[in-house]
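re: ur question from the group chat, yeah i did fold both. here u go
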Amino acid sequence: MSKEAQSHELTTTNEIPFERLKAERLNPLCREYIMDKINLRRVQKDCLISYAGNQYSVPAEYIGKDVAVVALDSMLAAYYEGKQIALHRISYQKKDMVVNPQHYRRLTMKQTMDAENILLEQDKVIDFPLKPSDLSRYDEVLYE
């Protein structure tokens, strides 16, 4: 190879690419590019996206939007406009539903005042005592 041809192949360190790897008995890095593993999914009204026969939740504000789904190793991530919006462990069971309750938080808020629905935030629902009704008359009608 001529000096001129070699000079076009030199890197900023004035070395021929990969020559040093051979000398140091190293192999080039094998990178896993995720570009072929990205899938677009539309977020349904129930905050779920489908992937590989299962359903995974994303935050409610993305309902109706298309999100990019990336699966690497045992994790599934959802992105919207480059921002990660959800991260789940991949379920290997079919027809499984993997949800994060926080993704539904926005759906528990009153739409008019942006105040959270406190009934849904507590561990128990407020129970109003009801006066027991006398149902014996219905029993009489049924068994006559």
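okk and heres the other one u asked abt
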Amino acid sequence: MAIPKRRGKRVRPARRSAPAKAAAESAAADTALERWRADTPGCQDRIHLNNAGAALPPRSVVEVMHRHLDREAEIGGYEAADEAASRVQEAYEAVGKIVNSRGRNIAIVENATVAIAQALSAFDFKPGDVLVTTRCDYPSNQLMYLSLAQRTGLVIKRAADMAEGGVDPASVGKLTRDPRCRLVVMTWVPTNSGLVQDVGAVGAVCEEAGIPFVVDACQAIGQLPVDVHAVRCDYLAGTARKFLRGPRGIGFLYVSDRALAAGAYPLYVDMRGADWETANEFQLARGARRFENWEYAYALVLGMGEAARYALAVGDVAFTRSRELAADLREKLETLPQVRIFDRGADRCAIVTIAVDGHEPEELKHRLRARGINTSVSDRVSGVIDFEAKGITGALRLSPHYYNTAAELGAAVTVIDELTRG
């Protein structure tokens, strides 16, 4: 009779204690931070707190652009574009993933303002038509609304804010019940504040009312999770240079399948966006590229694609870490008696706006820059309605990102204190 084999006792791996798990997670985070900073040559010699203006790009973004420019010089611009065709298409797909979309729904344009302009031009406004927006929309967008009002008779209606700041979705809902309402346009994150507006709630209102919804996400891309389907927007504008960490001078417009199927196209359609079929007829491109111009900067397109890929590899930690750093920065700044913080809203992001008693923001920006600290200034024209309500004419804007460190924030606050202490 066969003797059954004795089975050894199963050894279960020891459970990691909570302190050990926390230590391992902290070590992994430190390693990731070291890698991000090693990938970012610009952060070695200065503290960059101007990511809401133009973030420092990773080395790989710069290298991609340099390689393409070199090829243009070596073989010619058209020839280099042909050679890069597959990589250009990959850039569309990478940008699409940033907003949970496909490449065919992405139009590449010069910047987010051009993206918004292209979206607005798809509507044939008539006198008395209503455009609903917010009190915190991007200044360039507000100027476009005013220009449209003068030229077409469009009526601009700004929804009310909630008490804590940010647009009130109920107010938007009330305004969309006007039978003359043609669309709703709003900025997700204003340029002059750390406010995050509730685009999801407004998108739900627009969907229920059957009103097209246009979102300016230029400050959201790269620092907040963006899902065009959750937002329920018809158009969404983004830029590369800010929290996405791409090059300046390039951006994109997401166009929904619903808008494309309805035949939407920009007023000044280009030969990229349509084919000239007969003397008096044209045929639109099938995807969002109908909103593009034929000529664009291929090196920048490739750079934006690489920035999108880098952001996807970093993952959601970019969102959580940038917010945590901004919250830490606000806490540090609140200890300075000469500093006033002007961010409002129930939800605040990685933009911190302050005023310092007795010091002009522009002057302080340059003094900080001389000490190796990059910030920026939002003046009155960046947010007329918001700044008038706050009783200020400008603010110093500090915007950390995931590759910044707590030590950098502490150093920046120390310098601000030194420069402004009475």
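fwiw on the second one: Residues 1-8 have pLDDT under 50 and may be disordered. The chain has two domains: 45-54+315-420, 60-313. idk if thats what u expected
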